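Problem 3 from the worked examples.
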Amino acid sequence: MQTSTVVELSRKNVSYQILTEEHLASAIECLSSTFQSREPMTQALKITLEEFKYFAEILLKKAVNDQLSLVALDKINGKVVGVLIGEDFVTEPPERIETVSSKFLPIFELLGSLDEAYKQQYPVESGQLYHIFMVGVYKEYAGLSVRLIKIAESIAHKKGYVGSIGESTGHIAHQINTKRLGFKEVEGIAPVYYDDFHYEGQRVFTEITECQSCRLVFKEYRLTN
């Protein structure tokens, strides 16, 4: 198991480490508070902080075992200030995911439709694509998401992954992915427009106004690293 610091950044006294059990409680708090307060779909569905914490705990416990996720730590107080959940793109869902609030189901369906569209058009096997699933950073540490993703991609590349894939759910995330990190929208995979998306006959994302759609983005390592 890899638990040592991967890289250190003097700015704001932040270090980056592979997610381990010791980080779990602080990582749950960071991921939950950042997503519940800022992620468009989470806000539109009125997912509560406690509901998100339960969901985050399930995800992060699997992430600890997978050893493909990172945390950014404030070296002064030891607090997790940023979290990146990374996984194999064809990994199995975490145990107990079916026990989370039903409010999450539209999110699962929307993201799942993009991922399945990719797999049908571009067959992929385990060990090929690194899925950047979630990245959450406290506002006062803005900018760390770029560093988290770059370090995570470096680790994934060394493990034999040939590229990264992810879903841009908001405008800022999409700008970071495409303008600063070199991702491109996947050719042949149409974005899912929030205003047009239906779940069980209901347009559940009409409250989202900051961005129009969720887009699948991809980066091939051998062309960028």
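Problem 4, a separate protein:
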Amino acid sequence: MIGTEHEYSINNHDLKAMPVSDLIIKEISGKIQNEFSFGTVGISKELQKHVIEFKPISPSESISNLENQIFSGLKSFYERTNNQYKLLGLGMNPILNLSETSFWNHDEREVFDTYDRVFNLRQHGWMNIQALQVNIEYSTEEDLVKKHNKLRTLLPYLVAVTASSPIVEGKVTGYMDNRLLYYKQNQKEIPEICGNLIPEKLEKSSDYEKLLEKMYVELRKKDAEVLCEEWVNSRALIIRRERKCVEIKIMDEQESIYADMAVSAFINCLLRINGLKVAEDDETIIELTNIAIKSGTKKLKAELESLYKKAFSVATNEEKAYLIHIQNRIQNGNLSEVILKKYNSEKDISKILNEAEICLRENKTMF
């Protein structure tokens, strides 16, 4: 079983961010609340009030089933709100100024106030990040360890194919994945929480609780007991025991549901393969991740092509229809690279954002 979570920025028709997630939730559900069911999807708030999350009402074995759930929910959202908002995928809103947004100030206020006191939420690493999260179910403790350890070795390659945040506050930075660049610094006051993004290899599942406890010890020192929950772990890959899944958090949000599902299919296929020839030591995985954050697919082409061929060899017919998109990204560049090609050619970021908005609305890809 697989589940996904999709984070989109809320914008007006000029694609200026609107911190109104609470008002939208009230408009649709009748009251301000953290999350609610809406047809085929669950809709929930995020820390930032200009971001809203969609997830399928139920996980599925079928990638196309997940795609249909989310896209149907997205279309219903546009209809219910009379098309007054434009939603954007991407790992960051590329023109957002931090003064234009704020954080959730309703239920769970104590949690966010504590985060703000300890880490200062008023930075891009908190207020301007949008991730695609993929949740992979595990069956036993042994299965959990196996999937966790395999997924951690794949993280650099997932960054390479999904980076979609090359522009911050309207400026090209020289990095393909600015979301991760900012994200891995957002809790530097307690480095145990995020570290270098990459989680440690597990020998047994109980090792994970020991890692969490190290974070909790440091949080208690700062009178932040309210944050001592499993969700506080901000590594690129975490375990959610309450959901019985491994949650992959390293991917930038993509331009459309189909593109998100292509990433999910890629992950699904790679998990089936035994004996992948990829680095397993922390130092190399961290180094490769940093290369992907900086350069995207460019310096990892050979490795990505090898992984793609192996993934395709074990893919179902359904998955092959999605893997074509991954092949295109490997050959022609990830979304950041595509955006930069367009920007360098046209110097018109508003045109690019309008194209990205249409991609999400119509479930198309950007090339």
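Solution to problem 4. The two ends are 30 Å apart (CA to CA). The chain is about 50% helix and 15% strand.
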